[in-house]
Amino acid sequence: MKTVYLAIKYLAILLWSSFVLFPFLWAVTTSFKTANGVTGGATWIPWLQYEPSLQGWQSLFGGSGGTDITGPYFNSIIVTGSASLISIVLGTLAAYGLSRFTFKAGFIRNADITFFFISQRIMPPIVLAIPFFLLLRQLGLLDTLAGLILVYIALLLPIAVWVMVDFFNNVPRQLDEMAWLDGCTPMTTFYRVILPNSVPGLIVAGMFCLIFGWNDFFFAFTLTFTDTQLLPVAIVALNSSVTPWWSLSASALISVAPLILLAFVVERFLSRGGLAGAVR
Amino acid sequence: MSALTLQNLNLSVRDETWLDDISLHLEPGALYTLLGRTGAGKTSLIRAIAGLETLDAGSIEHGGVRWDGLAPWRRPVAMVYQQFINYPHLSVLDNVAFPLRRAGVAAAPAREQAWQTIQRVGLAAMADRRPGALSGGQQQRVAIARALTKDAPVLLLDEPLVNLDYKLREQMREDLVELLEGRQSTIVIYASTEPSEALQMSARLLVMEEGRVVQEGPPRQVFDAPASVGAARVVNDPPVNILSMTLDTDAAEVESLGWFSLETLLGVERLGLVGDQGLPPGQYYLGLRASDLALAPEGRPAVVTLTEVSGSETVTHLDMAGCHLVLHERAVVNHPVGSQIHIRPRLSTVFVFDRNGRRVHVAQPGQRADSRQ
């Protein structure tokens, strides 16, 4: 009975994994094909079914008449990385304040301020395109990394605040009070006690920011021209009259690579219960 | 060696009074027990002393320093919560060393001192573990150790043992008394809902009710002569029976228990309940401990509504003509729910309160009669 159960379980896992991993497998094989290989039907086994070629990969670095995407790749890393980092730092501080202290300004209370942050994500991004464009032009930051970083902070900060407010609200307040009575000021309490216990929340917020930032096409497209292309725009630009499936597949793979790597790195932090043992 | 003086502390939250004009003078070297039921204001008072609640009015002074407006991290207090609160990201040793490190003690001496405290609370084997890997009792020991290491002149213990199981609580209570012994310069304030704990542990009892300290004194004295209905309710477990009484010149009618000649009820002549210095006839409350009711075939009938057996004792809740009574027997007895039993008052100690709940008389006919013989 147990064997049957195990067999069914592993079969289900296998089926689901193949379903999820299939697009990756497809992209991997396609990235090593040439035009003939792509049009030759669903083939899988290199050398037997199709002749593998590095053409797709070489074209990404300017070889085989392709466009070098190394520049946009690093641009994307710089913009997403810095915007996420700044958003997490500012967002975490804002979230701790909103979670722990009472703010009053006229009719505005903590919940209103939190909602104000989140509301930035309610409107469709296209609403912001023209204001951002005009603003960056005025500031002379159009088509610059700094301009993009600023815009991305505006987009990512609400996510960071939202995730972290929710996280801090679930951290028992007695932990803060205990730290105060042990001699910590609110600021020391934050970085000595609350922050070390917020690693899972920070990782979730960080992942959200990185994924949103990394995948954004719209603002990367509308606020840049030639100097500071980001990866999503560069990948789309690879497309021409003849769709180069091989280089598109290769670029898709190197585009998801950082996020997959990151997921492996932070997975162990996420699975560990963050505040186990704080209050019982 | 400074005393802690609280003057007219008032605290209201959302139109609800949490602390009502509390004034106390607390001397170092004594263990004060704040005894009160849940919601009596014990935690609020402790939190107010720690600076975790902002008072509406009143002042706190310690050693000539006024604590008004002093942030919690500047007050020389240590506190243990009812919940087991520790820093989850630090080992037991680092948890205990934390207040010392914050006070500017270097890492090595802080850890050395923390290590000594950990040994005293019996957690030496767990020093490297995280609090999450400890049992509830061990976690609370860590919290107590941390509070002791700080060596603050005011130590606040807010029902630290209430979340532990019965056996462990008794063990930890003894350990705690031992740990607190000899701290001559420390004012220890211990909040509790259990009268037995207060009787066992403390030098001074502070009975709290509805945000006020209604009585203060040595535990035995408070137990023997509660100042009010509220105090009597707080210091007696199982709860004291409070019954309406109409006092006449020569007899009294007690709610549900019926008419008694005053001679029978209180030994009034000997105790002077009536007469020139006695109580004027009128409406009173009679306080009768649960152990001062007894089973008696000739007594009055009552219906059993609940029986609680704990250890070697039985507490039976009774309904007697709509009046709720509690009977305490030092034996394991099973009175089936719904059955009828007969009881009468034993009248060894009787408290008489006026209609405002203030005690006007304690009658101990049995003891007085004995002392006369």
Helix content of chain B: 25-40%
Largest sheet of chain B, in brief, is: 6 strands, mixed
CATH superfamily of the largest domain in chain A, please? Answer: MetI-like
Give the terminus-to-terminus CA distance of chain A: 40 Å
- Cα distance, first to last residue of chain B? 48 Å
CATH architectural grouping of the largest domain in chain A? Orthogonal Bundle
Oligomeric state of the chains present here: heterodimer
Order of H and E elements of chain A: HHHHHHHHHHHHH
So, the CATH homologous superfamily of the largest domain in chain B? P-loop containing nucleotide triphosphate hydrolases
Would you state the CATH class of the largest domain in chain B?
A: Alpha Beta
* Mean pLDDT across residues of chain B: 85
- Which residue ranges of chain B are poorly predicted, with pLDDT under 50 across at least 5 consecutive positions? 267-271, 368-373
What can you see in these coordinates?
- The complex is a heterodimer of chains A (280) and B (373).
- In chain A, 35% of the residues are buried.
- Chain A has helices spanning 2-31, 35-39, 55-60, 70-100, 110-119, 125-139, 145-169, 173-181, 186-194, 199-215, 218-222, 231-238, 245-271.
- In chain A, α1 (2-31) packs across α13 (245-271), α5 crosses α7 and α12 (231-238) runs antiparallel to α13.
- By secondary structure, chain A is an all-alpha fold.
- Chain A has two domains: 20-53, no CATH class; 70-271, MetI-like (MetI-like fold, Orthogonal Bundle).
- The two termini of chain A are 40 Å apart.
- Chain A is built from 13 helices and no strands.
- Chain B has helices at residues 42-50, 92-102, 107-120, 136-150, 166-180, 195-201, 219-224, 229-235, 262-266, 268-271, 365-372, and strands at residues 4-13, 16-26, 31-36, 57-62, 65-66, 77-80, 154-158, 187-192, 204-209, 212-217, 241-247, 251-254, 258-261, 282-288, 293-310, 313-320, 323-329, 340-345, 350-353, 359-363.
- Chain B has two domains: 4-228, 3-Layer(aba) Sandwich (Rossmann fold); 241-372, OB fold (Dihydrolipoamide Acetyltransferase, E2P) (Beta Barrel), CATH 2.40.50.140.
- Chain B is built from eleven helices and 20 strands.
- Chain B has 373 residues and is an alpha+beta fold.
- A six-stranded mixed beta sheet of chain B has the order 6-7-8-3-9-10, with helices on both faces. Chain B has a six-stranded antiparallel beta sheet with strand order 13-12-11-14-19-20.
- The longest helix of chain B has 15 residues, at 136-150.
- In chain B, α2 packs across α3.
- Helices cover 27% and strands 35% of the residues of chain B.
- The model of chain B is unreliable at 267-271 and 368-373 (pLDDT under 50).
